[in-house]
Every structure is written in structure tokens, then in C-alpha cells.
Amino acid sequence: MPTVMINGAIRQYDKGTTFEAIVREYQPKYNYSIALVYHNGKMRELSKRLERDGALSFITTADKPGHNAYVRTAQMMLVKAASEILADAGDAGRNTHIKIEFFLGNACFCSMLGGLRATPDFAARIEERMRLYVEKNIPIIKKTYPIDDAIELFRRQGMKDKEKLFHYRRSSTVNVYRMEGYSDYFYGYMLPSTGYVRLFKVMAYEGGLLLVLPTMENPTELEEFVEQPNLFDQLMLSTQWGDLVNISTVGDLNEQICNGSISDMILVQEALQERRIAKTAQEIYDRGTVRFVLVAGPSSSGKTTFSHRLAIQLKSFGLRPHIISMDDYFVDRDRTPVDIDGNFNFDVLEALDLELFNDDMVDLLNGETIEMPRFDFKSGRRVYKGDFLKFEESDILVIEGIHGLNPRVTEKLPEENKFKIYISAMTSLNIDEHNRIPSTDTRLLRRMVRDARTRSYTAQDTLRSWPKVREGEERNIFPFQETADAVFNSVLIYELAILKQFAEPLLLGVRPNEPEYYEAKRLIKFLDYFVGIDATPVPGNSICREFVGGGIFPV
Predict the structure, then answer these.
(1) 242 SS3 class
(2) What residue segments make up the domains of the chain, in order of their start?
(3) How many CB atoms lie within 10 A of CB 180?
(4) Whether 298 contacts 424, CB under 8 Å
(5) How many whole angstroms separate alpha carbon 222 and alpha carbon 445?
(6) Residue 434 confidence (pLDDT)
(7) What CATH number should be reported for the domain whose range is 235-548?
(8) How many Cα atoms sit within 13 Å of 360 on the Cβ side?
């Protein structure tokens, strides 16, 4: 009879007791639904059984792993419901299937592939069927298959994307989830049954479906969906770019790598990005009144390289761009805010001298000469080294900084003189048609590789600091993204195959006894989906070069 330590108390249970049975005892003590457990520091699904002594703690839907399990389970329910309804819709229905694309706030957008478009009636029927699943509380059973058997299973179900994905997988086995006759693969843990997924809404949207779900911050309520048209358009554009090179999943990418056509694909992707940058430069020039281009976005979005490439395009219109960093307007170190741990917090608005910045920019507009500051990070003070600037007719500033979209930053500047750009790495590539790649994973891997190259940080250092980075983004950047005049997606469809070569050795250096070990292990498993490629074919002006090195810009 295994002995278990739970919340400081020792309990004993029969060997083979499911974690779900133990959770039922403790659920009334928690405000949020328990989705997973840690047993001896290892994450386990509730369907798993207790086999040995150890410490047990609970993961709720207010925690990231628990929230993700809720999302994946709801997505499986939607895909199953849609497949059943489409099967009864004649040939057009049988030739249509669901692809899980991306998140817009609290809603997951799913496209309809094969011809049919989602209607409000179709969305209502899917939601009704999903609610039937909830009432029936259907078990979700995980079974491990030899990889060849899994490939054959998905071939029989017509899931060519999964068949292709596992063809390039080095693992000898695959975990497959089954729900009442329907089998699928999901990257990550699931809930034990459909009865756990009670909050959701299904809507028709832009020809596809929106699956509206509770957020991690508010797991017990379903908030209204708020449209983000700029973000949606940019994400759909990236999906279209993938279609141009016949890559929408990791399996497609691996196939092109192994077929030897990756170099051409890299150049096509870079050309598509350059065309988008050129279009943005054209918009700025056509306005005629823009003097300040504000480039803002979350960590590791490629803001610096983008600013340099945009400046080159602006030069082609006869403008004279000057690239500056908003970091040069940091307050002196003795005035820098600190976080709850006593560390300097450079991500809050109060870390900037907004009065000086606005006064300098207004002086430039008024035709005065100013001396541009430079922030010396060693001394923690602004310094002046004779960098004088006076606006002539063709001068324009390209200002890079995470707060660029916040109206307080440029409150003294006329709106007609500003052009705001939101940039982020918004992943359009899917692992397969039912497993999207989180954009945060792409940015995290970018940052990890750059941190190791430029700051000699370990993977553990980057992983440890990442949650605070994400908190700052949620508070200071994302609320303003829809106010941008232009949105730029900096992700490159091939880049994770490049980053793999640099990130894997760093992640393997995280030891099992370190708190970041399981996140490092998750990322190693994620990178295992990709066939790695050398960075040699990547152009020197690529945003990818900002992270792996070898670029032509000073970053």
C-alpha cells in the first residue's frame, strides 16, 4: 500500500488507485478544477495509477499545464464532433476536415479544409454535440503504439498529416488518445474524460470556427470573444505564405528538407518577408507626415533586425531614417523600479524617462537640434557623446522599444507624425492539423539561443527568467497591439529546424535536479519533431540571424 504525502499530511492508498480517485477527495478544497498532478516531481495525467510512495501535489486549470490540458481536450471534442457531423453531409462533408490554426485572445480559430465553410447552424450543431459528450462523460484513453502501427492507424483514418509527421519521428512509440471510437494524437497531456470540459462556446467566424474557452487567469468564467482583426489578418497571411511553399505542418517541412529543396524555400520565405517590409515602408512614405516610426513587440520578436531592414526600404524612397532604441531613455539606475524580489525591472513604463523623450521628440519636430542620449548599461546612466540631430525634410526616426504602442510614451506628439508597428513571431506552422505550435515556444527558443551566444547564459538562466518576461508582455505590450498601424509577423516557417541545432545542446545541459528540468525536457521533445538543418543558406539580413548569429546588422 503506497504512502503519499499530500499538503503536508501522510496518506495511504491501495496500489493501482487512479490519481483521479485521489483528486476527488481533495477537489472541494480547491477553487479551480484539478487537471493533472505532480507525483515525485513528475507530471502525471489523472488516468494514471499510483504505484509507489511519494509526494503528490495538484495542478489546476489556473496553472499553465492544467489550462493546456483543458484546451487540448476541448479541441479533441470539437474535431470529433465536426468529423461526425461532416460525415453525414455527403461527399462535400466527407472531403472537408478541421485544422486547428491559432488563438485570438480566448478563442481558438479552426479553419475548414476541403471546400465547405462553417455557418452559424454548423457551429451550433458542433456545440450541441460537444455538450452531449460532456453529459456522457466519455473516458479519454491513452494507448502507446509502436510507431509503425500508429502510422497505419492514422493512414486508415485519412490523417495524412500525422502519417507524414511520424514518418520522420525518431521515437519508437507514439501515444494515441481514443474517445469513443475516435483516435487522435495530441502534443501534451489530456484530461481523463469529457465531463471535465464544461465551459466553451463554438461560433462561426470568417468561414471557420471559433472555440471560445476560459482563460488561465479566469478558469471559472467564459469571457466574451473580442475581435482582433489586425492580428487575424496577419496570422491568415502567414498561413497563406505557408501554402505558397506547400508547408503547413512539420511533416511538410521535414519532407522538403529531406528532398533537398529547403534552400529555395528559405529564399522564398525571406522574399515574402521583404515584400511585406517594403509594403510597410510604402505606407509610411505615402502618408507624407510620418516622422516617428515606433516598432514594438514582445521579447525575441526580431525588432532590431526588422528596424534595420525597414530603414533600408525607407532609404529607397529617398527618406533618411535614424534608428534609435528607447532603451537609451532609461532613467538612471538609482531611479529604476524594482520588482517584488528586489531586482531591477526594466520592462515597466516607469523605467523610461518619458518627459525627456517627449521633450526631445517635440524639439526635433520644431526644428531644433538635440543631442541624442546613449544609455551606458555598465554605469547605469545616460551619457552624451556628441550625437546631434536636427530634422531636415527627409529625416525620420525608427524607434525600437517594447512600449512603443503605449499612448503615454508619445503623448506630446501629434498622431499624424506617428506610425506604429506591432511585431511578433506568430507561428503559422502546425505540428500537424490538430496540434499548433505556440508562438511563445518559438520566441523562447530564439531568446535561449541568443542569450547563450551574446550573454553566455545557460538554458536554465533563460527558462528561469521567462515567466517574468511573459508577465511583462501581458501587461505592457499585448493590450496595445490592435492600436498598431501595421502588424508584422517575424516568424520564418523554416527557423525551428535551424534553432534546433543550437537549442538542443543547451537544453540537454539542464540537470534533472533543477526546477527548469521538465520544461527543458518538454522543449527537447518538441524539437524532436523537426529534422535539423544547417544555418548556412540563411541570408545575412534574415531575422533568424539576430538569434543564431552571422548577421550583417549590429544586433
Answers:
(1) helix
(2) 3-60, 66-140+190-227, 235-548
(3) 13
(4) yes
(5) 31
(6) 92
(7) 3.40.50.300
(8) 20
Q: What is the full DSSP assignment across 525-554?
A: HHHTTSPP--STTS-TT-TTHHHHS--SS-
* Separation of alpha carbons 543 and 555, rounded Å: 10
pLDDT digits (tens, 9 = 90+) for 83-130: 999 887 765 566 788 899 989 889 999 998 877 889 999 999 999 999
Domain 66-140+190-227 has CATH 3.20.20.140: no
The torsion angles phi and psi of 330, rounded to 5 degrees, stand at -60, 145
CA separation for the pair 104, 232 (Å, rounded): 7
Which residue type sits at 164?
K
How far is residue 305's CA from residue 477's CA, in Å, rounded to a whole number? 19
How is residue 63 written as a grid cell?
496553472
Q: At what angle do helices 517-527 and 495-508 cross, to 10 degrees?
A: 140
Distance from C-alpha of 41 to C-alpha of 515, rounded to nearest angstrom = 9
- Spans of the chain, pLDDT less than 70: 90-94
Q: What string of DSSP letters covers 381-428?
A: EEEEEEEEE---TTEEEEEE-TTTT-TTTTTTS-GGGEEEEEEE----
Rg (CA), the chain: 25
According to the CATH classification, is domain 3-60 in 3.40.640.10?
no
- Say yes or no: do domains 3-60 and 235-548 share a fold: no
